[in-house]
Amino acid sequence: MKLAVKKLRAVPAVPEEQVEKAIREDEVLQAFTKEKIITYAAFLFLPPYGLYRFWKKDSPFRKAERYVWTMMFVAYMACLIQAIVL
Asked: How far from 15 is each of 11, 19, 20, 66, CA to CA, in Å?
């Protein structure tokens, strides 16, 4: 009785930078997921809650996007306060 033996070839390890790049590209392709659209709507109609959705731990937004949306929130609130005061 003969046993079939397969030769296993070593698979080269993928560099960590390449894995991170692939993850970032996947995130860029998923720009309008259901959760992100809800967050955008919340930001327009209820800015503090929208900002919370951007910064919660399981948020799909990257850190750079969070900073941009936070600055937009600050500008939006400044304009709103200025409109109310004047």
From this structure: 12, 7, 9, 27
Predicted model pTM: 0.60
- pLDDT < 50 regions, the chain: none
Nearest to 73 by CA among 33, 38, 53: 53
DSSP string, 7-61: PPPPPPPPPHHHHHHHHHHHHHH-TT-HHHHHHHHHHHHSHHHHHHHHHSTT-SS
Can you give the residue range of the structural domain that contains 44? 31-85
For residue 7, being part of any structural domain is answered with: no
